[in-house]
Amino acid sequence: xxxxxxxxxxxxxxxxxxxxxxxxxxxxxxxxxxxxxxGLLCHVAYTFDGQPYCTPTIHWREDDMLxxxxxxxxxxxxxxxxxxxxxxxxxxxxxxxxxRSGFNHSANYRSAMCFGMARIIDEPQEKLKALAGVVxxxxxxxxxxxxPISAQEAKATTVIGMRIEEASAKVRAxxxxxxxxxxxxxxWAGVIPVSMVVGAAEPCPRLLPGMARPDYLSGYAEGARxxxxxxxxxxxxxxxx
Amino acid sequence: xxxxxxxxxxxxxxxxxxxxxxxxxxxxxxxxxxxxxxGLLCHVAYTFDGQPYCTPTIHWREDDMLxxxxxxxxxxxxxxxxxxxxxxxxxxxxxxxxxRSGFNHSANYRSAMCFGMARIIDEPQEKLKALAGVVxxxxxxxxxxxxPISAQEAKATTVIGMRIEEASAKVRAxxxxxxxxxxxxxxWAGVIPVSMVVGAAEPCPRLLPGMARPDYLSGYAEGARxxxxxxxxxxxxxxxx
Lengths: 241, 241
Hints:
Two copies of one chain form a homodimer.
Chain A: E1 25-26, H1 29-37, E2 41-48, E3 51-62, E4 65-69, H2 74-82, E5 84-98, E6 106-120, H3 124-136, H4 151-156, E7 159-163, E8 166-172, E9 190-198, E10 202-203, H5 226-240
Antiparallel strand pairs in A: 1-8, 2-3, 2-5, 3-4, 4-7, 5-6, 5-9, 6-7, 6-8
C-alpha cells in the first residue's frame, strides 16, 4: 500500500469546507479516516437525471480509495461506468444533548463527508482485490478461509470505487453548552450517551460440528463497541497489506 | 394531525422502486415510518451545481412531512428557497452476517429512502411549530419546560421541510443464507448482532440543586435500545398532537 503521511490533509474548496459550525471541522487524513474506519454503514449521494439519491451501503477503504457495493440498476450503471460525482458520508451518533433552551439542544457525533468521482471497478485484478478486502477489512484473514469466489459471483457483484479528492470531518464531543444566562433556568440538562454495541454472536444452526468462533472475531465480543472493533480490524488489515 | 390510514402506501416509480434485492422492499406508510421513527440521525442528498452532497443531520416527522436542520450556507439556501429535489434516508445496522462464501456475506439492516422537494420553512407559525416538534418529538412535553425561544434564535435557525412524495423501506432481518452446497464448507458462520444502546446519563455539572431527571426520559435509561426509546417517544408525541 502507498504510505500516506499522517499529517497530510485534503485540499479545501467550496465543496468540502465546513460551513455550519465550522469550528467543528477538520481536513486532515487522520481525522477523516478515523471516522470512516469506525463505521461499516455509509450513505452515498449520487444524482441521476437531476434527482439526488441517498443510498445506504457498506464501504471499505484502501488508503484514499473508498469502495462500496452498488446497485445493478441499469440506469445507475450507465452513469457509473462513465464516472459520476458522488459524496460518501459516514456518521456516528455519540450522544443526545439536552440543554436549557431548545436552541442549544444538540447531539454529539462524528461524521466524514468524502467527495470524488464514483466509477465501476471492472478491471478484474482490482475487482478481486476489492472483493477480498470487503471481507478481510472487517474480519482480517477470513477471506482465504472461505469457499472461493466463483467467476459468476465476481461478475454478478458491482463494486464501485472513488478516490477521495476532498473531504472533511466534523465532530461534536462535549457536554451541554447553554447561554451563560440560562444556567439558572430550572430544567434538567445533560448528555445521554449512545453507542453501537455488539450483542451475543448467533452461530449458524447448520455449523459443522466443532467449528469454533475464529480468533479474528475476538474484537466483536458481546458488549464491545462496534466502532472500536471496526477500527482495530482496519489497523490489522493495513498491517497485513 | 391528519390521520393517515395505516394501510396506505406511497406510490412507486422508477425513483423509489427497490431494484437490488427487491424482495426486501416495501412501500406502505407503516413500514417507512417505522424506520424513520426509530432514528434520530438521517442523511439527506441534495444536488447543487451538479455536485451531490450527502449531509448528516437530525430529522423529525409530522405525518408525511419530514423536517430537518439546514446549513445556512448561502449557496444552499438560495436553492432551498426555491425548492430542490432531495432524498432523505434513515438506516439502522442490526447485524453482521458472516457466511461461508464472500458473496453471501451481508448485514441485517432497516432503511427508508424518502423522496420529495425540500424547501425552507419560513412561514412563522409553521416554523415555530416545527421547532417545538424537534424537542417534543424526542422528549415529549419538554419544550414547554425550557427557556422560551427568542425571536433571534428562531431567525437564526434554518428549518427545512419535505413532504414525502415517494418512499421505500428495505429490511434484511434473518440469519446466514448460504448456497445449499456451501453448508458443508468448514468455516465458522453466523450473525453478530449490533444495536444502538443508551449509556448512563451525564447530568450537566451546573444543574440547579434538586433538579431530578424528568419522567419523559425514562425510555432513555441506561442499557435501553435507542431505536425503541425514539419509537416510543414518537408515539407519545403523536398522542399529544
